[in-house]
Design brief:
The chain is α+β, with helices and mostly antiparallel strands. It has one domain: Clavaminate synthase-like (Double-stranded beta-helix, 4-Layer Sandwich), CATH 3.60.130.10. It is built from seven helices and 20 strands. Strand 13 and strand 14 form a beta hairpin. The longest helix is centred in the C-terminal third of the chain and has 16 residues. The chain is globular.
Length: 316
């Protein structure tokens, strides 16, 4: 990709067919509106941008604002002191601990879209590391536009116009569709435990199984395997079999980008378009990142009941 504003653009490692790298970003370069427009267009086109050799809270916030209005993420337990930054952190002494295929990992997370369990889905965010574990710690990404494009035509016809029902439940052992590991929870954090004790307080929500990216007209396979509980109007064995087939296509047959973090990286993803996951940390090693939240709502979700105040949720 050509250079602009002193920046170097390139494909993600392994060239998964989506995403791009941006090297050399500075606050001075970001002040150039032509650079900002190029970044916004690249984000729409590629879905994930990995910024290399960038550091600092000010640049983190300025860069995030390039892509939209920042909001305080609707979580009480995980919000950082700065209202526009959210802490994503595993601590060995009291962190969320799971056994994944027999191995203990801190805050391992399955494939999902942020806030898919509410009716308004944020547009995206930028992650920045503060402390990285000695091993593991990767963040995975799957492009749902590519997932739809590679879906067999017979499945495209079957899912046209269908919707998926989602339910808030932070126990990954209860994931129904597209499971990629055998998981048991060894320890919840106090905040997650408080959520699990009152799951009936959270209504189910519905989102379309396919949506069209408004800027390009491309279709995206709008499925978050974690939190999905069935197809609306088909909550039976036939509907479950169809949703599992589609979920298996997403997690097994779609190109995955696994980001190996460097201390001076920042990563932006389009939450409407891209699934993400967390490989977790060794149980005795800390992983700490900060995250912005870019406001947005694609306007296609709805709640089955009166929606709960978003501040009642913990984001994953």
């Amino acid at each position: 990709m050509p250079e602009a504003g002193g920046l170097a653009f390139g494909p993600l490692p392994g060239d998964p067919g989506f995403g791009a790298t941006v090297d050399g970003m500075t606050r001075a370069a970001l002040a150039d509106e032509a650079v900002r427009e190029r970044l916004r267009a690249l984000w729409i086109d590629r879905g994930v941008l990995v910024f290399r050799r960038v550091e600092g809270e000010d640049l983190h916030l300025d860069l995030s604002r390039c892509f939209g209005r920042l909001i305080a993420h609707p979580t009480r337990e995980t919000r950082a002191d700065h209202p526009e930054l959210m802490t994503v952190r595993y601590r060995p002494d009291d962190g969320w601990l799971m056994r994944v295929d027999g191995e203990l990992r801190g805050t391992w997370l399955p494939w999902h879209s942020d806030l898919i369990y509410v009716d308004r889905i944020n547009r995206g965010g930028i992650l920045r590391p503060v402390q990285l574990p000695g091993r593991l710690g990767q963040t995975g990404f799957i492009d749902k536009i590519a997932a739809y494009a590679s879906l067999p035509d017979r499945l495209k016809r079957r899912i046209e116009g269908l919707e998926v029902v989602y339910k808030y439940d932070l126990d990954p052992a209860k994931q129904r569709f597209g499971r990629t590991a055998e998981v048991t929870v060894e320890r919840f954090t106090d905040g997650v435990r408080s959520i699990q004790d009152r799951l009936d307080d959270f209504p189910r929500v519905i989102h379309p199984l396919v949506f069209v990216q408004r800027e390009t007209g491309r279709k995206a396979l709008n499925l978050s395997p974690w939190f999905a509980i069935g197809i609306a109007g088909m909550m039976d064995s036939a509907g479950d079999a169809l949703l599992e087939e589609v979920a298996r296509h997403v997690v097994d047959d779609t190109e995955v980008y696994s980001h190996d973090w460097r201390s001076d990286d920042m990563v932006l993803w389009d939450n409407w378009r891209v699934l993400h996951s967390a490989a977790g940390s060794p149980p005795d090693d800390e992983r700490w990142l900060l995250r912005t939240t870019i406001e947005g709502d694609y306007g296609l979700g709805r709640s089955e009941a009166a929606p709960v105040d978003a501040a009642a949720y913990i984001s994953v």
